[in-house]
Amino acid sequence: MALLGNSGKHKNILLIVEILILLFFIILNIVPIFWGVLTSFKNPRDIAAFPPKIINFTPVIDHYITVIKGGIFKAMVVSIQNSASTILFGTLLAAVSAFGFDRYKFTGRKFLFFCVILGIPLSVGSSALLIPNYLYMITIGLTNKIYTLPLLYITYNLPMAIWILKGNIESIPISIDESAKIEGCSDMYIFFHLILPLTKPALAASALFLFIGSWNEFVTSSVMVDSPHLRPIQLSIYNYLGFFGREWGPLTAAATLAIIPIIIIFAFLSKLLISGLTQGSVKE
Amino acid sequence: MHRRINLGLILITPGFVFIFMFLIFPIFYALGLSFFNTNYLQVEGFAGFGNYIRILLREETANSIGRGLLMSIIAAGFTMFIGFWLAYWVNSRSGIMAMSLQLVGLVPWVMSMVVGALLWKWILAGDLGLLNHLFRTLGLPLVNAFGNKVSSMTSLIFVVSWRTIGYSMVMLLAGMKTVPQELIEAAMMDGAGILKQIFHVILPLIKTPLLVSGITVLMSNINNVTVPMVLTGGGPVNATNVVALELYRMGFVNSQYGMASALAALVIIINVFLIAGYMRVVKWHF
Amino acid sequence: MKKLLLMLLIIGFALSSISGAGSAETSSVGEKKVVRMWTFLNPEGAESGRNLALKKIIEQFEAENPNIDVVVEPQQWDVMTNKFFAAHQAGNAPDIMWVISYDLGTAIEQGMLADLESLFLDDWTEEEVSDINDSFFRWGETDGKHYQITFSRNYFSLIYREDLIKKYNIDFPFKTWDEMIQAAVKMTGVDEETGIMRYGLGQSFGLGKVDPPIFTYDALTHQPDIFNPDGTADWTTKEMENAVARMSDMVKKYKITPESAVNFDIEDVYQDFMAGKYAMMTGASVRIPALRAGANFDPESIELIHYPGDGTADFGQGLFSGWAVSVWSKSKVIDEAGKFLEYMMSPEADKLWVLDGGQVPIRKSTIPALGDFFDKPENEYLKITAEGFTNYCYATPTAFPIPGWREDLNAVAQDVIYNNTPPLEALKKVEKEFNTRVGK
């Protein structure tokens, strides 16, 4: 049904208005991205030119060569490794915790779950906590290790993932567990063979969160790792935004390259994602 | 139903250890700092509530918190509202338009925040920007997007919302997919208007995604340093100096870590209150 | 099947990151001594001039010293020094650190830096020392000891377009600030070729990425310092007030700077300068090559000049800044670190910094040694920079901390231009704020 309902003759006009509104939204969303991608193909002179050059320039791929020579693929591999371990251990931890929170009663359950929810705003991060966090991580000797960033990314996205998964497990009728119990299945069997397959979409949703959370994260990584071979992709984007000013060409080229994997992953997960976030919502 | 009591605890332990070790404990560690004189990060003696008093005595503290809340709430409200309508629209159709809208909406959320904000600044700012070039070509009056207090705040809210609309759209869309079509049709049969249908059928059923995305958007707005820093630098004359930016400056420019930690503590308390308030509004319980 | 494949890929990468854990650290063991350095440069990164120079210097140094391994750990420039302070506290700081200019005083006062005398300067002949003995060298000198060598030297002064100066027949260089303003007025107007409204003088007062505002330099031509010896701000003087008023006139009365400058940051000004929006701008010498690369007019016409004086001296004061490169006082490989720092400013390395990196040399002897290079017309700005360093340069104090002073002064500019606050009142407000901040 149309946005404004279907009332006879005006239907077509309304449809056009509707499409215009949406086109406006699409353009608004796309303009900066389009402009960024365009910039990545311009030479420095055309980038600064006025009036802005939209089609009347000769595209160059110099900036892509610059960022590739600057090791963006190396950084991408680091980011892929970080994201992969974040996704893998993050979803596993979240699923186990969500199962525990939903299917068992124990003292302090409400309080502990409240702590998890509290974790959501905490994990958004506050700039003032950056240096204290760094001091803390040095003190326990966990900075600048290959597992430093995955550990932090798992933690920062865990509360959200637990929440999504718990909502999902809630929607699975408890009678499934009970009948399996009667047939003598162990708790672990129930979890791995009955619950997990049913939560696949929610797992995909959490995986997407974990992925975007780790792929796009910048502030933590800029402080917590030092070694050149531990630098993830966001740091190589920032490379071109340094002390000596912004280099629009390489900056936009690096940002363009960095967005491609996300689109690929999203194409993989989008269908699952949509159905995954749904299940928890029809509760009560 | 009753099961062995401790298995649940065992199951949640690994995840909880992570959350405790890297989220909750460091906060206390940081809050500890707020009770010391820690300029330049060298601990120079116990300050008691000195830092808190100093923070509360500054006029700019309350102002920046107010601005931060104003910006975050308006932007989050805007995001949720537009996100909802877009989701509603996408939900009612299928095909290429719906799919592309979904993907297009998501891109601002996943692209490098600093690059996105920089590009917007480039487009909006000055008389050489893309926007003013367009306006000039169309014969419209030029806009001064960052030059005065109101326009600067508006631009900030606009870009902050831009970043999150796609995200809320996807979350809400996911929720709407679960609302059985029969329910909506039944409401239509009863002669319910579109608003009635939304308030009585759809909204109650998408409470959880509403809550999750609302909180996430709100929190990420309040704690967003990058966008205000890149876009307006807090100006003109502090008009867009939101609390996250004030916090950042206090720590990284002025090296007043004790005070910055105290302000961070205040912000965290505000965050918690906002969550509690939000939960009340959408009547969610766990 | 696709999902299974994706799953396998994820597991594979996750495992590769775990198994990589061992190999990441083995590089630091063995007989080689590892010297860690924090800088915003990245020799493994984009092959820009400075990165390349550093890369070559490290390669040469390691070839000469096979038992030392120099590892650069690239950092974000704006959090790097704070991170160093934290790392010092925790006992895990890098062996060589690039300290941001405004925090040098703090770093020395807190004993974070090793003095260079004990590392290598004591072995130098007087002649050698005099080769590097300039205001940069003396910067941060405490009790006769030196703690840093300044790299990435930068000179904040006036960038201008020679083509426009010629076109409008302007007497150049300017002897006074008023002459400069009059020249800017002449050059303000709509550009015939591009149709851009061109302003005489580009400057910014926003707090995104900040440089000191222009009135700082104006004031410094009339008063020797903007800080008192006790570490407080000295901003409520008649000279400061006049300078602020003059800046306000530039925007409001003469309209040589657009009013929207209240919320530009300096990067916006550089960008618009390349499009042709300004005839002159306040800026940094190191940015000239990039400006030339992006200029939409004759790139060779972009030049650098000192700020005007008060009519008696030839020129006024610019500001120098740079990165104070120092050895961490608690380093376990302090001698090796000192050795590399010494090498980074050796005559050979200095030449690389100039030729590849486009930097101003650290040694006086490098200029005659590279005579041909400096005589090229496009390198005239490097000479001006060097001249500025010796004669027309203000250095921020290091005897006490001065956090946030640039932000404060820009806030004055915003307050005066946007709110029409009287200059003195605006100055009083931030002076008080600054003094409270430093605890005075």
Which sheet architecture does the biggest sheet of chain A show? 2 strands, antiparallel
Oligomer: heterotrimer
Mean of residue pLDDT values of chain C? 90
Biggest sheet details of chain C: 10 strands, mixed
CATH topology annotation of the largest domain in chain C: D-Maltodextrin-Binding Protein, domain 2
What is the helix/strand order of chain A?
A: HHHHHHHHHHHHEEH
SSE order of chain C, one letter for each helix or strand: HEHEHEHHHHEHHEEHHHEHEEHHHHHEHH
Structural class of chain C: alpha/beta
Beta-strand percent range of chain A: under 5%
Architecture per CATH nomenclature, i.e. the level-2 architecture of the largest domain in chain C: 3-Layer(aba) Sandwich
Number of strands of chain A: 2
* Broad shape of chain A: globular
In spatial order, strands of the major sheet of chain A run 1-2
Pick out its properties.
heterotrimer; B: 286 residues; mainly alpha; 13 helices; C: 440 residues; alpha/beta; D-Maltodextrin-Binding Protein, domain 2; 10-stranded mixed β-sheet; 20 helices
Description:
Helices cover 71% and strands 1% of the residues of chain A. The N terminus and C terminus of chain A are likely disordered. Chain B is globular and about 70 Å long. Chain C folds into two domains: 186 residues, 3-Layer(aba) Sandwich (D-Maltodextrin-Binding Protein, domain 2), CATH 3.40.190; 206 residues, Periplasmic binding protein-like II (D-Maltodextrin-Binding Protein, domain 2). Chain C has 440 residues and is of the alpha/beta class. Chain C is globular, with a radius of gyration of 24 Å. In chain C, strands 1, 2, 3, 4, 5, 6, 7, 8, 9 and 10 form a ten-stranded mixed sheet that branches. The chains are: A mainly alpha (284), B mainly alpha (286), C alpha/beta (440). The interface between A and B is large, with 105 and 102 residues.
